[in-house]
Prior knowledge:
Layout: H1 13-21, H2 26-32, H3 41-63, E1 73-77, E2 83-85, H4 86-102, E3 105-110, E4 117-118, E5 125-133, E6 144-152, H5 163-166, E7 173-181, E8 185-190, E9 195-201, E10 206-211, E11 222-224, H6 235-246, E12 250-251, H7 257-267, E13 270-273, H8 286-299, E14 303-305, E15 325-328, H9 330-338
Parallel strand pairs: 3-5, 11-12, 11-13
Antiparallel strand pairs: 1-2, 3-4, 5-6, 6-7, 7-8, 8-9, 9-10, 13-15, 14-15
Binding site for Mg(2+) 1: 111, 130, 132
Keywords: Carbohydrate metabolism, Cytoplasm, Hydrolase, Magnesium, Metal-binding
GO molecular function, one term: magnesium ion binding
Amino acid sequence: MQRSFNNGNAPSIESSRIAHSIGTALDRFIKNNQDQFAYASGELSQLLRDIALASKVVNREVNKAGLIDLMGAVGSQNLAGDDQQKLDVLANIRFTRALAKGGEVCALISEESDTYVDLNNEGKYVIAIDPLDGSSNIDVNVSIGTIFSIYRRKSPAGTPIQPTDILQKGSDQVAAGYVLYGSSTMLVYTTGHGVNGFTYEPTLGEYFLSHPQLKMPEDGKIYSINEGLANSFPAAVQEYIKYCKDCQYTARYIGSLVADFHRNMLKGGIYIYPATAKSPQGKLRLMYECNALAFVAEQAGGRATNGKDRILDIEVKELHQRTAFYVGSKNMVEKAESLGIH
Ligand SMILES: O=P(O)(O)OC[C@H]1O[C@](O)(COP(=O)(O)O)[C@@H](O)[C@@H]1O
Ligand SMILES: [Mg+2]
Ligand SMILES: [Mg+2]
């Protein structure tokens, strides 16, 4: 299949290089783009390979969750007070094990763990992860995901982990991305040199480049927000929703952040989870949900804010810190900001 990248004009060298890289296996792609990583590329390869490996196992379990008794809750709650689903816990185990075995990670921050977990003290990286995003959709066979942020530790490898290693701002991320377990399974990530998407080929058991250099349209006609909570939204958010309706935009809300974000990145749109009466700080977590998607969004030409600050500039004070989240097409987020969202 030949894709034209510039409306039928003679493809530029860059676009034909990109066109021909479609179908490149993830490992090969990382090797071919070693210059894209500030640190020793072997370490990034290993880290992404560990995340890809765990996601393949989780993907297999997600696909047959109903058959292998992986539906429903385990009876305990995480620190956020969410009922932990069996797949939340299992995905957390799969990623923790794969990253521990890989040896590159010294500390793991997870939605499903109250405190960070020490892995390999010689490791140079800290990872924040939402092992299973969209938990309310697990039992109803709707797309779910995994979200990850990768940081370089600040303290020397082999020394005790310091708070400064853990509580890093989003702008300190060296790589970030997500896995989407949808009609197909995709791994999408950035190392600060654009965003690339890989589709999983289950018979070969490998991810292949399918969406090179993803760009988020600057404008869109889709808005994603849980309007069931509208009565407790700030006035400016209600005003922005009215603006979207007046423009006859399309309302789309899956209820899985990764899936709503991914659609809006491809088609153009805005995802909003504001502060509400129930969650006055917002619902979503800065370290393992918003920072990663904000990095991906900005690298794809989009924008991410809490209404006042750029998400990536927000100081991190605690592991499970929440934030209001407005992310998506640049002009749509700016429009919402111009109405005074906060
Ligand atoms: O049900 P609500 O309040 O609309 O919240 C849905 C949001 O909460 C989340 O499910 C939170 O993530 P987890 O499932 O990882 O806890 C997001 O994926 C989703 O966008
Ligand atoms: Mg989540
Ligand atoms: Mg989760």
